[in-house]
Automatic annotation (TrEMBL):
Belongs to the phosphate/phosphite/phosphonate binding protein family. This is Phosphate/phosphite/phosphonate ABC transporter substrate-binding protein. SUPFAM superfamilies: Periplasmic binding protein-like II. It comes from Anabaena subtropica FACHB-260. Residues 37-270 form the Solute-binding protein family 3/N-terminal domain. InterPro entries: PhnD, Solute-binding_3/MltF_N. It comes from the Bacteria.
Amino acid sequence: MKRRNLIRYSLLFIAGCNAKLNADNTRGQSKIISPKKLSFAVTDVAGIEDLKRDFGYFCNTLEEVLNIKIELYPVDNPTAAVPALLSGKVDIVFAGPSEYLILNARAKAVPIIAIKRKDYHSIFVVSADNKIDSLAQLKGKTVAMRKIGSTSGHLVPTKLLLDAGLDPTTNVKIVMLDDDGASALKQGKVDAWTVSSDRYKNVIESQGLSEEDFKVIFKSSLLPHDIFVASNQLTSDFITDMRSRMIQHQEKLISSMLTAKENQKYRGSELIPAKDSDYNMIREVYQKIGQDNFLKQ
């Protein structure tokens, strides 16, 4: 009898211990608080129709990956995403490297994930018969850049000119021509054109030009990546979970981006964890051109 009671009490004790361990484990697990819906913006796409055209299918795919409803939110310009984040109107923003620094400084945006492009460099191009073969030889010349604030078509080229010993405000004449820099160079209206390496061929082909008419005199190192950032009003656990899901389903997400003509530059890309330090190169440019106050709150 005593032996049976001893066994019974032992089993009850073990069961009680297991119940306590299970309760402790449950208390130790933090439940991820997910919002019912998210709003998504892109810094360089203005207007809801263009946003639907370029990122509508991507957002549908992201909805499936996160299992959360996503609404498109157009912004008029890159800096307009700052008040949208601060006011809670936007939860996720897809931004270029320079725009990321503004969002991080002014809205405390949190890096989610970066998209690493296979061939993303700044290049300087001149006419094939031009004797210029170095950046230093651009002194006194006219250089076509893309647009103010563009990472590959303005900020990094400006840094490269500075590194070559040229002052872009006095030694070189800078004109912002967007994609018309190619035709301007072909027509002799400018002496050089700077553009991203993965955009170069597309621009030339779209304007009926030939690569044989041009030569690349300089190619930068790989540039910082475009990046998805989150509002700091979202919980850190949710952002971590979102990052994990996006990496896990990156092939599906990138494929959905490529359905838009404007996103072909992301072909062959991969999603990687984003680090703030990867963007110090752009911070340095702002400092060198005396615009570092732009990155302050």
